[in-house]
């Protein structure tokens, strides 16, 4: 009875998810599957048509691919909730072995054999991943905002996979053959298996690990934060634009030593601004934890690493910080500290402005705590 009640009291937050290896194993595996699948399916018709395969033959692969989604969805709902590792590993391993066999047949000049089962297994893998991950995350009983945030972070893998076709085009242009693309696909699947096997427990039904790494709250000028982060990239963009405009009129700005020196100085300022951004992400998470512990906050080091290695997740982290500050203001009987709608808009349009809004709200929160 005690274990049952404890499991029902578990509520994972976005920060809890982002602080575990199992989440990033799911992220990395989903990324490898998405990139590998996108790179393969983009050039697969061309690869098969160059071997003399008819459109009907190529259609076998895509018929299997579509039917595989039905099998993958069924597998995710039946097995994914209780055994997420096996729900992901089983079709992934079978697809890897089939891809190896198909690569050997393709190298020997055959294409018809294994087309349908290859497409079937690939479709199963592509379907089982997003549904199993969603079911697994929901097992941690997160709030709607935390669940949506975790899915949004994972959905960046689909965005990244859109660039896979570029890499495939380079491979195809270099070798004038589809075999390297097939081998790259196999390599992606093998990497996905490896990262998943390193995390045997993929469920989130256990109690999340407590985290509290406080730093002393420090007030900063929001204007200073915005200007330090915004000015260098604006100057760099202005210089590139000026060179583009004047180049059409016969002026070669990059031929000028003074312009080159200024250009490299601004590049150095852009790097410095990025380092300050990482420092600010580190400090703001620690300082908000220092003002009041919260399981929704990442550790300072965790926030820094995510900002460095997964920058597409930063808008979600900033929105979460705004929500935390609004909750703290509400608990003290104050108006909301920051508009989440405007914060989300500025996060995508001009991130330094969103960072300044967070800093301004944090300054107000520190002042309330001091009084």
UniProtKB/TrEMBL annotation:
Database matches in Gene3D superfamilies: MFS general substrate transporter like domains
SUPFAM superfamilies: MFS general substrate transporter
Keyword field contains Membrane: yes
Keyword Coiled coil: no
Ranges annotated as spanning the membrane: 23-48, 60-79, 85-108, 115-135, 147-172, 179-205, 225-246, 258-282, 302-325, 337-358
Keywords, sorted A to Z: Membrane, Transmembrane, Transmembrane helix
Protein's name according to its UniProt entry: MFS transporter
Lineage: Bacteria, Pseudomonadati, Pseudomonadota, Alphaproteobacteria, Hyphomicrobiales
């Amino acid at each position: 009875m005690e274990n049952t009640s404890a499991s029902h009291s578990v509520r994972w937050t976005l920060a809890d998810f982002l602080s575990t290896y199992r989440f990033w194993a799911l992220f990395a595996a989903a990324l490898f599957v998405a990139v590998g699948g996108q790179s393969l399916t983009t050039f697969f018709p061309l690869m098969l048509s160059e071997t003399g395969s008819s459109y009907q033959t190529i259609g076998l692969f895509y018929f299997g691919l579509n039917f595989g989604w039905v099998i993958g969805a069924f597998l995710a709902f039946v097995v994914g909730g209780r055994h997420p590792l096996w729900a992901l590993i089983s079709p992934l391993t079978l697809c890897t072995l089939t891809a190896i066999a198909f690569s050997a047949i393709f190298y020997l000049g055959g294409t018809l054999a294994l087309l349908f089962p290859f497409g079937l297994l690939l479709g199963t893998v592509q379907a089982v991943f997003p549904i199993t991950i969603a079911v697994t995350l929901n097992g941690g009983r997160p709030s709607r905002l935390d669940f949506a945030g975790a899915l949004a972070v994972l959905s960046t893998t689909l965005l990244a996979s859109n660039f896979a076709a570029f890499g495939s085009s380079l491979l195809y242009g270099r070798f004038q053959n589809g075999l390297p693309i097939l081998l790259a696909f196999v390599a992606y699947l093998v990497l996905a298996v490896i990262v998943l096997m390193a995390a045997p427990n993929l469920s989130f039904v256990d109690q999340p690990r407590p985290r509290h790494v406080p730093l002393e709250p420090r007030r900063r000028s929001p204007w200073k934060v915005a200007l330090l982060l915004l000015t260098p990239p604006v100057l760099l963009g202005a210089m590139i634009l000026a060179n583009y405009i004047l180049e059409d009129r016969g002026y070669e700005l990059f031929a000028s030593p003074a312009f080159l020196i200024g250009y490299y100085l601004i590049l150095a300022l852009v790097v410095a601004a990025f380092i300050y951004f990482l420092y600010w992400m580190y400090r703001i998470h620690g300082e908000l934890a220092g003002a009041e512990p919260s399981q929704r906050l990442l550790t300072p080091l965790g926030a820094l690493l995510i900002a460095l290695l997964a920058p597409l997740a930063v808008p979600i982290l900033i929105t979460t910080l705004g929500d935390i500050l609004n909750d703290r203001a509400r608990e003290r009987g104050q108006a909301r500290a920051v508009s989440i709608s405007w914060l989300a808009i500025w996060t995508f349009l001009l991130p330094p402005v969103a960072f300044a809004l967070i800093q301004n709200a944090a300054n107000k929160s520190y002042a309330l705590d001091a009084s």
